[in-house]
Protein: FAD protein
Organism: Venustampulla echinocandica
Amino acid sequence: MSSSPASPPSPKSALIVGSGVFGLSTALALSTRPSFATTTITVLDRLPFPAHDASSVDSSRIIRADYADPAYAGLASKAQSIWRQTEPSQLGGEGRYSESGLVLVADTGNGGEHYVRESYSNVVALNKRNGVADNSVTELPSKEAIAKTVGTGGGSGDWGYINRCSGWADAEAGMKWLRAQVDATKRVTFKTAEVISLLYSPSGDKVTGVRLKNNTILEADFTILATGAWTPSLIDLRGRSQATGQVIGYIPLTDAEQEKLGSMPMLLNMSTGMFIIPPRNNVLKVARHGYGYTNPVAISNPSSSPGKQEEKEIIVSLPATTHNHPDLTLPPEAQSAMKHALQSMLPTLPARPFSATKICWYTDTPTADFIITYHPNYNKSLFLATGGSGHGYKFLPVIGDCIADCIESRCPPEFREKWRWRENVVDNVVTEDGSRGGRRGMVLWDEMARTHVPSTSSKI
Ligand SMILES: Cc1cc2nc3c(=O)[nH]c(=O)nc-3n(C[C@H](O)[C@H](O)[C@H](O)COP(=O)(O)OP(=O)(O)OC[C@H]3O[C@@H](n4cnc5c(N)ncnc54)[C@H](O)[C@@H]3O)c2cc1C
């Protein structure tokens, strides 16, 4: 592969591992880049598309520019303008995007408040810049103002605002739309196979493809890992990124309840992390944007480190999903936190069992910044497009081009520092961007084994 800052890489073959938002949007962007015009592009995934336990595949994802960080707010605002295109053939069409509004709140004096206040300033400024009506963002200075705006008889938090320009996407439908765009290019071959390791050159300083679970190999000039929360099983990311499990519950509603709650805004409390998405097809979703659970597993060190003596076995947090644990349910502390959140947010909704639950895995980084960069050890043969940190989905229409720009060494300036390979690693990856609620340090199987719920379970 030839590459230099002046001439973008032009590999003969590019292998993208992972067909979530990061991998699929990269495939689409590369298929239109002149420098990849003669490149054979292959996308591999361990499961048939859409992979049911991928973090990009679910009933909903929040599409918001409500960020404390102006760079992500700006990029999200760009993405939103594409989500809002609602002709049937367009991304937001056929119910893939719904602009329900978002009530973003915090418990004053607690974690999350700073984030919500910064986010408020950012969206007010963004709307002014975009010429959006002044009343699209309204401060909600009290519990009463929040309850009145949510309109369910309940609420959460005691300070916040409503942004009527925020909405939610049918995440699985969005992914199917994206896949159709990629298929239409006729440039990309899809394969279902699980990668068990990267292949390295004899000297260990180049990645030359991947080894599959059936022990065959697939060679490539250029490999992109877009493997979400599974990425730490393929490359050593200790101190840079790890999988954290996040809880979701789906609640069945009657027709009358659907009718009553169908037009409510989303409600997200950044202090507890608890949020609800308005129901569709008689199902309401409650979930927690939290520090999550780790699932520590001992694995052989997947990295080749030329000239260095590395540990043979390392411990990393990896996803546990119903694919490898068919009976996986929610730990008692999560069930209790969800019950409390529902009582507060929807006090008139009679309690009932979940129709389904799920643990979905974030690819967390210490700062919630993505990792979109060449791995420094492999002479530009390995690129990482991951680190979604629980907020990557909304960027579906724009992130592929950003990733392709970074591959071509033209990373958007505001993200150059944020998405780069970090030389300084932390001892323990805990995402501290101010947006996370719940307890820190929970281990999945320890929480599963508990028979009683710790009294602090729904507090920060
Ligand atoms: C519960 C939850 C709620 C979220 N809410 C929001 C939200 O409201 N708004 C928002 O913007 N974002 C949200 N996010 C974050 C967003 O969904 C993710 O950042 C984004 O989907 C990450 O995409 P990805 O492509 O990195 O990972 P994924 O979608 O997980 O894709 C990775 C793919 O790699 C494949 N793979 C992994 N290992 C291998 C292997 N060894 N061989 C072959 N294939 C492999 C997997 O099968 C998978 O298909 C949420 C995430 C979760 C989990």
Observations:
- The radius of gyration is 22 Å.
- Residues 113-129 form the longest helix (17 residues).
- DSSP finds ten helices and 24 strands in the chain.
